[in-house]
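Protocol step 4 of 5: obtain the predicted structure for the target chain.
Materials: sequence only (see below). No template structures provided, no constraints applied. The aim of this step is simply to have a reference model before the mutagenesis design in step 5. Sequence pasted as it appears in the construct record:
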Amino acid sequence: MRAHLGARTQGGMMTEEKQIRVTRKVDASPETLFALLSRPSRHPEIDSTNMLQGIEGPDVPISAVGDQFVMNMNNPILGQYQVKITVREFDENRLITWGGNLYPEDAYRDKVGDMKLTGHTFTWALEPDGSGTEVALTYDWSGVTDEQFRNMFPMISEEQLSDSVERAAAAAG
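Step 4 output (structure tokens):
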């Protein structure tokens, strides 16, 4: 498993990297992995944070940019809550990116005030590699604009991302 996190030089200036990326070759085809990733009901199987509790509503496969689904969540700060997930990138059997926002947006003001809890994404990139697939999972918070929220990142560790890739490989196998 290879991982990337930290600072980098850009134009002679150090910039803070706002993402964690892990890669690993797994013994499953891109098609099999993508079929797993495109089913929101299966996401709790690969979630290493144990925050995902299951989808709200019908289990409709993701098939295009703009597709949405609602995920039931749980964490120590918000307790039980929901997030509406929107697909941001989609290339069948190769790439899928999604990001979320509290749902409904105003339902949790008593806990988060005016903080905008949006702008972070997860990207799964799948590249055929012999009999398996090179999987890259990227957790990116560079799109977070709310300063208070940005200061909470990263919320997920490199180890948790690595574990999610392992779980996806096992679930797809």
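Step 4 remarks: Residues 73 and 137 are 20 Å apart (CA to CA). The first helix runs from residue 30 to 37.
Proceed to step 5.
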